[in-house]
Design a protein that fits this description.
- Keywords: Amino-acid biosynthesis, Aromatic amino acid biosynthesis.
- One of its GO terms (molecular function) is NADP binding.
- Pfam families: SDH_C, Shikimate_dh_N.
- InterPro entries: Aminoacid_DH-like_N_sf, NAD(P)-bd_dom_sf, SDH_C, Shikimate_DH-bd_N, Shikimate_DH_fam.
- This protein is of the alpha/beta class.
- The chain folds into two domains: 136 residues, Rossmann fold (3-Layer(aba) Sandwich); 130 residues, Rossmann fold.
- It contains ten helices and twelve strands.
- The protein has a six-stranded mixed β-sheet with strand order 2-1-3-5-6-4.
- Helix 2 packs across helix 9, helix 2 packs across helix 10 and helix 5 crosses helix 9.
- The longest helix has 17 residues.
- The chain is globular and about 55 Å long.
């Protein structure tokens, strides 16, 4: 009995709101497939003010944490080190607790985007378009820094957002040009379109999908498909979904937290699809 208590490991996702998160479903599916019967994965509603106290109370049974909004930047001063990937966008979505007690922050969203695109045959593009600005758009830019050899056009709603995207481009060494959202239909002709906007924002663009679209990466997964993704598929274009991203970034988290590889991506994907179908 004592051995079981010592061997049991814990992980969780933190954020606000958190009730909708699929992370518990994905991580638990990985534990089941890997035979990690003593591992558990929970979710906690958490804001920035509560985060320091929560971290201080964690015991040695904790292997790691997944972080969503609004904690991805708030956690940075609370960790001992962060990866270059996380530092590049000032966002940590993964904290792993080392054996010596150090808290190590990383960002699996960026390599998760690259892996999701690679799974769909996209390893390099000569240009791309981003719909939207903000935290997800900056992660998209960081992913494009790895696979895009030319210009990235970001379609935004304000000059403030445009300036932010240009600054991210300079920081990430990506050739970024900004355009007004009123011209967003032009984005749909790019070799790769990454939609980072909230649900419903791109619905009006569905009618502008070209006859032979290339690849759409829509980071949403609920509701799915979006009107844009459905129209894109109808016209024969390749579609990468938010669930693809969620699964790939979760695979990297499970690898870091458990030290196990390979991680059962397909089992995690099936669990995510089943959970979404039940909503």
């Amino acid at each position: 009995m004592v051995s079981k208590v010592v061997d049991a490991r814990r992980a969780a996702v933190l954020g606000s709101p958190i009730a909708h998160s699929l992370s518990p479903v994905l991580h638990r599916a990985a534990y089941d497939a890997l035979g990690l019967t003593d591992w558990s994965y929970d979710r906690f509603e958490m804001d920035e003010a509560a985060l320091p106290g929560f971290l201080e109370k964690l015991g040695p049974e904790w292997a790691g944490l997944s972080l969503t909004m609004p904690l991805k930047r708030a956690v940075i001063p609370l960790v001992d080190e962060i990866s270059e990937t996380a530092a590049s966008v000032d966002a940590v979505n993964t904290v792993v607790f080392a054996e010596d007690g150090r808290r190590i922050g990383d960002n699996t969203d960026i390599p998760g985007m690259v892996a999701a695109l690679r799974e769909h045959g996209i390893e390099q593009v000569d240009s791309a378009a981003i719909l939207g600005a903000g935290a997800t758009a900056s992660s998209a830019l960081a992913a494009l820094a790895r696979i895009c050899t030319g210009e990235v056009v970001a379609y935004v709603r304000s000059e403030t957002r445009a300036a932010e995207m240009r600054q991210w481009g300079e920081r990430l060494d990506v050739d970024v040009r900004t355009a007004d959202w009123s011209d967003a239909a032009q984005a749909l002709r790019a070799p790769l379109v990454i939609a980072t906007t909230p649900a419903g924002t791109t619905d009006a663009l569905a009618a502008a999908v070209p006859e032979r679209p290339a690849t759409l990466f829509d980071v949403l997964y609920d509701p799915w498909p979006t009107e844009l993704a459905a129209r894109w598929s109808m016209f024969g274009g390749a579609v990468v979904s938010g669930l693809d991203l969620l699964v790939h970034q979760a695979v990297l988290q499970v690898e870091q937290m458990t030290g196990r590889s390979p991680v059962p991506l397909e089992a995690m994907r099936r669990a995510g699809e089943k959970a979404l179908a039940a909503r």
